[in-house]
Write a structure and sequence with these properties.
Low-confidence stretches: 123-132, 428-487
CATH class of the largest domain: Alpha Beta
Radius of gyration: 33 Å
Oligomer: single chain
Largest sheet: 9 strands, mixed
CATH topology of the largest domain: Rossmann fold
Length: 665
């Protein structure tokens, strides 16, 4: 590469003399050329090294490489006259020779790099037509002629091994129609997809900004073609924002939810978790395993994985060691209900942050086995919280649920008791008014509204108040005291809870069940035609849990913005269509009735809880309540004794006594 550039610079310099004198170089000027050519070559090569022209590979030459070529050649051309005149005292070289030498060197050096790229990347640019007409290439129609579409097409053209030939773009921006990108024409709007007939074999949707109803319209248009269609992930899913053909995947139900991308305060999150010893309970579960993967990217000092399931723990341990070879990992096969086992884990690992995701969460099963909910969700949480305080843990984050709001089931009531435990452990009863200058809270009024439980149109209500239509801001104004202690509890640990709704694809969620039923062509079972739930993806939930944990000052219950509630029946129909089938024709939907403990609608706050906005648009926080820690501990002790006796009515009665808003079905 260096030798080639040296020859090209010398040839360009000679040609500048040759052209200047119309092919007849006078003997004196020929002597000047011979005296200076070595200096010209060495100077140019020196600038080429300075601007890293030899670190790249010619076959991947891009705009940044060409910019470096232009800069290096320009600076060399400006430096040479100075060196020749002031240092070597060489005079008499016409100025036009320096100008022509600059232009010729630029053309030669840049041209060689572009030429090599075109030769090695067969299928780029003008060679596309005759090099990519083979029958073994898939003809690709790309929806979206923006940044993502351009990147996808460029990779297809530059990588023959993909065996993909882009044949056309469709884009709803009319100013782009009729133009082309990398030689691929933009033939019309997305709605005109049916007019292309058999010109393509497969569709790639390259519009990451599509959400909700827009996505449904595009997918409906793709389905009408009868061809396979896939999608580029949203920017939030792309690693480092990098677009690659390898990331193209089938459309998933998450793409139809219409949720905005989560934007994390990465600086705050990194500052909170980097270099910390982090213990994650329930590490093998859906949320726990994603928390492990997410927190690993922030370079913690060590990761502790605690789970009761041997298989799940083995899987997440192997995955974590493979992903994060530089992070020490310790796995603890432990039951959070057994104190001495937990104590040994804490003494061995010495955690600084605990993310508590271990819980029983299946509503009907916990309704039938309430003793297990008490032992695991309440007793286990209390043991962990107390050990965290004794061990000097800085921050304890409980993963809670929207079912803790006005619970109608044992699972929700048990999680509400766990929330109350953390309020008490944090010393909430002694707090004064919140520090409004804290970086955690925003001065922007909360836009969330409250809707009654019998209101069918929940699309406009983010957080609901079961009694009245007061806004969250009015509720906050009525009760201005926010019980939070910035210093944490008496032991210095900051205890917080994070409350959110259903997670798509988690173990026991409706999506895997629906997919199994659709694959077997069985009726898809939905409990009620009007049942609605809040949903978010597992990665989104984990990211917001980490964000809320980083914002914690102690005593808060953070509420994640779950977006708009989704009707389960509509979700079932969308999922059937994504499998290429027609609802009520190929696969029927059967309504089975609400199961024990289930509600028609879920809520995210309960009566008397005021929402305070935070600086993160996706996270709200509610004030703690007055808490008598000693009384709550006595009630929990009594509840545990009832659980040991398996007295189901007595357990539910005691839960109602502790959580007055709990109304057993």
């Amino acid at each position: 590469m260096v030798l080639s550039d040296a020859v090209l610079v010398g040839v360009a310099y000679f040609l500048s003399f040759y052209l200047r004198f119309d092919g007849h170089i006078p003997e004196g000027y020929l002597s000047l050329f011979q005296q200076t050519v070595a200096l010209v070559v060495v100077t140019n090569l020196a600038f080429f090294f300075v601007f890293s022209l030899y670190r790249g590979m010619y076959r991947f030459t891009g705009l940044n490489d060409l910019k470096n070529v232009i800069t290096a050649v320009l600076l060399a051309s400006l430096t040479l006259p100075f060196c020749l005149f002031f240092i070597f005292r060489i005079q008499g070289i016409p100025r036009t020779i320096h100008v022509m030498a600059f232009l010729l060197t630029l053309v030669f050096i840049g041209g060689v790099r572009v030429g090599v790229r075109m030769a090695l990347n067969r299928g780029s640019g003008m060679t596309t037509g005759f090099l990519r007409n083979g029958k073994d290439y898939k003809r690709i129609l790309v929806l979206g002629a923006g940044f993502t579409g351009e990147k996808v097409v460029r990779e297809m053209l530059d990588t023959p091994a993909l065996r993909m030939r882009p044949v056309a773009f469709l884009d709803d921006n009319e100013t782009k129609v009729g133009k082309s990108i990398h030689g691929v024409p933009i033939q019309g709007r997305v709605a005109q997809i049916g007019k292309l007939g058999d010109e393509f074999d497969e569709i790639v949707i390259a519009i990451p900004s599509l959400k909700g109803e827009q996505m449904r319209q595009v997918i409906a248009a793709c389905e009408q073609t009868g061809k396979r269609f896939r999608i580029m992930p949203s920017i939030g899913e792309l690693i480092g924002g990098q677009v690659s053909v390898k990331m193209i995947r089938d459309v998933k139900i998450e793409d139809l939810l219409g949720r905005d991308e989560v934007r994390l305060d990465t600086e705050l999150v990194s500052r909170s978790y980097r270099g910390k010893r982090i213990l994650i309970t329930g590490a093998g579960g859906s949320i726990g395993s994603e928390l492990v993967r997410q927190v690993g990217y922030y370079h913690p000092a060590a990761l502790g994985l605690l789970d009761f399931s041997e298989y799940n723990l083995f899987q997440i341990e192997m995955d974590t060691r493979g992903r994060f070879e530089y992070i020490p990992v310790k796995a603890y096969l432990a039951d959070i209900r057994i104190e001495n086992v937990l104590r040994r884990a804490f003494e061995d690992f010495r955690p600084e942050i605990v993310l508590h995701a271990a819980a029983y969460k299946h509503v009907p099963l916990q309704e039938l086995n309430p003793r297990e909910a008490v032992f695991n969700n309440i007793k286990g949480t209390r043991l962990l919280a107390d050990l965290a305080g004794e061990s000097g843990v800085e921050r304890f984050v409980l993963v809670s649920t929207d079912k803790a709001v006005r619970p109608t089931n044992v699972m929700g009531a048990s999680k509400r008791v766990a929330e109350m435990l953390l309020e008490c452990r944090n010393g909430a009863q002694g707090a004064g008014e919140i520090n409004r200058d804290s970086a955690l809270f925003s001065s922007t009024p909360s836009a969330a509204t409250h809707a009654g439980p019998d209101q069918k149109n929940r699309d406009s209500a983010l957080f609901s108040d079961p009694k009245n239509g007061d806004t969250a801001q009015e509720n906050k104004a009525m009760s201005p005291i926010f019980h939070a202690v910035a210093e944490g509890g008496d032991n210095g640990c900051r205890y917080v809870a994070v409350r959110f709704g259903n997670v798509l694809g988690s173990s026991g969620s409706v999506i895997p069940i629906f997919e199994q039923q659709i694959a077997a062509r069985m009726p898809v079972t939905v409990t009620h035609p009007e049942v609605t739930r809040y949903f978010m993806s597992i990665p989104e939930a984990a990211q917001l849990i980490l964000q809320a944990g980083a914002m914690a000052e102690g005593g808060e219950i953070f509420i994640l913005d779950m977006g708009q509630p989704v009707r389960i029946a509509d979700m079932a129909r969308d999922l059937i269509r994504l499998h290429g089938l027609e609802p009520d024709r190929d696969v029927t939907i059967r309504f089975t009735g609400l199961r024990p403990g289930e509600k028609l609608y879920e809520e995210l706050i309960t009566e008397g809880e005021g929402i305070v906005p935070t600086l993160h648009e996706k996270i709200r926080v509610i004030r703690g309540r007055h808490c008598d820690a000693a009384a709550l501990d006595r009630d929990i002790d009594a509840l545990i004794e009832l659980a040991k006796q398996s007295d189901i009515p007595a357990i539910k009665a005691k839960l109602h006594e502790i959580v007055p808003e709990y109304t057993p079905q």
